[in-house]
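Here is an idea for our session: we take a single protein and study its fold together. To get us started, please write out a protein record for me. Once you have written the record down, we can walk along the chain together.
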Amino acid sequence: MSIWEYANPKKFLSTTERVMPALWILSGLLMVVGLVWGFFFTPDDYRQGSTVKIIFLHVPAALLAINAWFMMLVASLVWLVRRHHVSALAARAAAPVGVVMTLIALATGAIWGQPMWGTWWAWDPRLTSFLVLFLFYLGYIALWEAIDNPDTAADLTSILCLVGSVFAVLSRYAVNFWNQGLHQGASLSLDKKENVADAFSNPLYVCMIGFGVFFIAMVFYRTGTEIRARRIKALLARERLEA
């Protein structure tokens, strides 16, 4: 079996419709367990108090905001190289989810940062690169909506995705690139001295997996919607020609 079989819209729809119910249930359970565990059954931090618990929303959302763009990049490259329409539609489907996750990350970061830094926002290199990534998301969605020809829209948005990937990389690895600024270092690290305590990391991992499964389910659902919408447009266009 080849992965390229799923570039066939019919095959993609039949497969995703079978697995989506399980994905919705699994993501819901993991997110509820992770968030309840994190917010109600973890201790306060000795420095940040109960404010630290926003980590269970902020980190998964920020991680998804960045990795959603990477997923869009891969799908866009597949479109540019192999011209598979499902990949272009999957990239389009992921963008609104990425926008929402970026907004959650920016909002929770501001709420977390205000009591810690004394300000809601700072032009920290890490925060700024994340804000630019959010603007690229908006531009990507707007470009899809502005162009009537779907193949032309897919081409131009794929190029935009390539350019925006620079800021996705900066957002992902800014903690390593810059040591200055207000933003703290990475919450999760292979170095036990830098990693958060197990009391926080264990529910955080559950939240991250739950958010990840939710993202996959959303992309499957929205891609299916895009495929059906394109089919309807094609049928309407055919009817107009025959009329």
Notes: The CA atoms of residues 3 and 12 lie 10 Å apart. The radius of gyration is 20 Å. The mean pLDDT is 86.
